[in-house]
Amino acid sequence: MGESNEANNQEVIGKRSSFSEKCVAESDIEARGDSSSSEDETLIDMVEVENDDPALSKKIHLINNAIDEIGFTWWHVKLFCIAGFGYSADSQMSMIQSSVHKYVDLQMKGGGYPVATQIGYAAMISGVLIFGFGADLIGRKLCFNTSLLMTAIFGFFTGGTSSYAMYVIFYFLSLLGAMGNLGTDVSVFLEYLPSKYQYLNTSMALWWGIGQTIVSLLSWAFIPNYSCKDEDNCMSAVNRGWRYSWYVNSAIVLVGALLRLFVLKLQETPKFLVSNGRDEEAYNVLMSYARKYNRKCTLTLEDLQKCGEIRQDYYSTKKDGYSLKKLLTTTKINMKLLFKSKKVTKSTILLLLSWTLIGISYSTFYNFLYIYISEHGSSSELNSTYITYRNGTIENAVGIFGPILAGRMIRIRHVGRKGTMIFGAIASMAVLFGYTTCRTAAADAGFGSATYFFINIYYSCLYAYTPEVFPTKCRTTGVALCMICVRVAGAFSPVIYWFGSESGSSVPIWVCGALIGALAIVSAIMPFEPSKQRCV
């Protein structure tokens, strides 16, 4: 019996030794920049975005090895669905306003400038500021678990309001939570994902299309049947459709929030923990998943501790706690990390530019398109509320498959993330230019479906690429900064919508197509291609 135990101990020691030797060998490859070896390039970390702290780089490398060793489990399937549902909730809560604002205005405001839509962009910016910057200080777990709950609760309140002022306030608060959620979903999933399955981070954007389809279906069901026709006869009793849309969408989001709390039971991500000097907690999280799913994990706490101490003075909360002062200090430090070298600076600037361009072009297209079609269409069907919501449902449902194709494309050799984004941008530009010829309901459904399909190829890849090329320590800060750019740019769309409704010009569509086409050039010159590397 003693000999058997000794043999087992020697086997474990051998496994741990080989684990450490493998880490050293891979680190040597990274130091030489040798990626000429071939099929196993996925084992090389993107150390260039983490090289300001050698100790942390080594710890992240060990965490990556451990996650790869544990492999893909049933828990990752649940995380894909429940974190992905955050994408759905974001698109649902931001899209409701575009489907109900006409009837809210008729009942409470009587038309005029779309104030609530403009306030919505302020909520989006505030949400990513608070939750995005905060998640690099207080952790991913708390933001991940609370944001959807906040979204659902205030969504119910929005549907129950009786004045336009209260509608705007509760809409702001609901969207605040939804946008805060978006920045953490992609980071949480990425930081738990084995390198072999990183492509799923791109495919997870299919949930965006699911959320949009849910909103379109509910709008199609409620708005035509339970809405007033004009301002003179638009009391609440005959205009309940917009309320039903808010109630049902909020109930769906609430179910997702409860699943996060009671089914997924997310633990803090190990990469966040080691980035904050909490090695033992990171180790325990990994071991708990390994034991739960009966997977091998030869990482030891000693392996992590041997890497040395990280620059903990930057990230420790012992001095200031979770205070506003600490948040501002951490954000300032993280912002510097986003511009710490020429290559990282170039990457950050190009990402910010990409999000700005897609923000103004996509939002303008989305808000302006139906004005243009209704004024230039030869078919009276295009003015039908029923046809409008029917076509919207078809188009958003087709858009679900764009991220699925994107997830497949990024795995093709010599295509990768950048090639997929280039394809999605050029194809979207071509379809948008063709949209100017749309005159019938059938053409609208066809062009709309193609637009959502191809734009979601680009969009899903950009969503996944963005956190992949940001350092772990400032990942959600970087994502939040990009979200701010897209929302600030998108805030101009109601202005274009307002003036576009007066002129009936097709110029905004041509401009949107050109801006989306320009994204292909921006994608081509991005310095990182993480398709064949492990994200840090």
From TrEMBL:
Membrane topology per the entry is: Multi-pass membrane protein
* Subcellular localization, as worded in the UniProt entry: Membrane
| Matches recorded under SUPFAM superfamilies | MFS general substrate transporter
Which positions fall inside the Major facilitator superfamily (MFS) profile domain?
72-532
The record's listing under PROSITE patterns reads:
MFS (PS50850)
Coiled coil located at which positions? none
Q: Which UniProt keywords apply?
A: Membrane, Transmembrane, Transmembrane helix, Transport
Where is the stretch described as Disordered?
19-41
Highest rank taxon of the organism: Eukaryota
Q: Where is the composition biased (Basic and acidic residues)?
A: 23-33
Bilayer-spanning residue ranges: 115-135, 205-224, 244-263, 349-373, 393-410, 422-443, 449-466, 478-500, 506-528
Q: Name one GO cellular component term.
A: membrane
* GO molecular function terms attached to this record: transmembrane transporter activity
Q: What is this protein called?
A: DEBR0S4_05952g1_1
* The organism of origin for this protein: Dekkera bruxellensis (Brettanomyces custersii)
